[in-house]
Design a protein that fits this description.
flat; alpha+beta; disordered N terminus; five-stranded mixed β-sheet; two-stranded antiparallel sheet
């Protein structure tokens, strides 16, 4: 009986000890997963970089460096769940009719200073029907709606308005991601160039660096253009005033002056006709000979019939 109780107690203690070991193993496994993940990334910290140019002439082995995890066309993902700031390009046009264009232009100048904008272009057209200003304004995007509201609250009559918005967030983020990756590759190329031994390898690397630098410069220019379009909105303003129709008879010269001009024009016509005859004398001579020959032939034919 005592022996059976001893065996039963031993089995119970063994079971409790096994459960405690499984719990400890589960905790250590969870910690080990994180360590294993870090180990997976640490494998990229020191790898053998095998580099070969497009011509196949340069190969660098045994060089310890960090490998690029993302590809040349990879896009950066938002970290920490942060939302990407929207990049919106806003443009608009507005047409205003005024009774006093000069005063309205001065008023628009004051609004431009208030909203920290500037004139991109300014054209004035003054004809018999109307006087008008064609204005192209660049204004900070955060002042765009305020400027439009101020323009519509003036004494000028709004004859038309058009506003457009274009979302370039995807293009903006895509270019930024490609630039970041290409800058990393450019740094790698320059590191390899500093350790190149042969002239063939140096020339091949320099060519790759040149092409990559041109792509970076082009994308930086596009990015700067988009950034400028996003930061500053463009507003086209047409400010005009219709003029009243006033009949103005055409002024004519005195009768004596008109006679002089007529005589001069007539004499000029005579001179031009004489010069034309001199210029085409050969044609006139041929036509005269043909005419006289036909006339003589008809006369002889008439005499023969008689």
């Amino acid at each position: 009986m005592k022996k059976s109780m001893f065996i039963l107690m031993s089995l119970l203690l063994t079971g409790l000890w096994s459960c405690s070991n499984e719990s400890a193993t589960g905790i250590s496994s969870g910690e080990g997963a994180g360590a294993g993940t870090e180990a997976n990334y640490e494998r990229f910290d020191a790898v053998d970089l095998n580099f070969e140019t497009a011509e196949g002439g340069f190969e660098k082995k045994g060089e310890k460096t960090k490998a690029l995890v993302s590809g040349a066309n990879s896009k950066p993902m938002p970290q920490g769940g942060k939302s990407i700031e929207k990049k919106i390009i806003k443009d608009g046009t507005i047409t205003l009719r005024s009774q006093k264009v000069e005063l309205s232009k001065i008023w628009i100048d004051s609004l431009l200073k208030k909203h920290r904008g500037y004139y991109q272009s300014e054209n004035l057209d003054n004809n018999n029907q109307r006087i008008s200003y064609d204005l192209s304004i660049r204004v900070p995007s955060q002042h765009f709606e305020h400027l439009l509201n101020d323009l519509q609250q003036g004494t000028e009559e709004c004859m038309g308005k058009s506003i457009s918005a274009r979302d370039v967030t995807e293009e903006f983020v895509d270019i930024e991601g490609r630039l970041a990756t290409k800058r990393q590759y450019l740094q790698q190329y320059r590191l390899l160039l500093s350790k190149a031994a042969s002239m063939k390898d140096i020339l091949a690397l320099e060519e790759n660096i040149r092409v990559l630098q041109e792509e970076i410069d082009s994308q930086e220019g596009r990015l700067n253009y988009l950034r400028d379009q996003v930061n500053y909105s463009t507003l086209s303003i047409t400010l005009y005033k219709d003029k009243e129709f006033v009949y103005k008879p055409q002024e004519q010269d005195q009768f004596s002056e008109r006679i002089k001009k007529s005589l001069a024009n007539g004499w000029q016509s005579v001179i031009n006709g004489f010069l034309w005859i001199l210029e085409h004398w050969s044609i006139l001579l041929v036509l005269t000979v043909v005419f006289l020959s036909i006339r003589k032939w008809r006369r002889n034919k008439a005499v023969t019939k008689i």
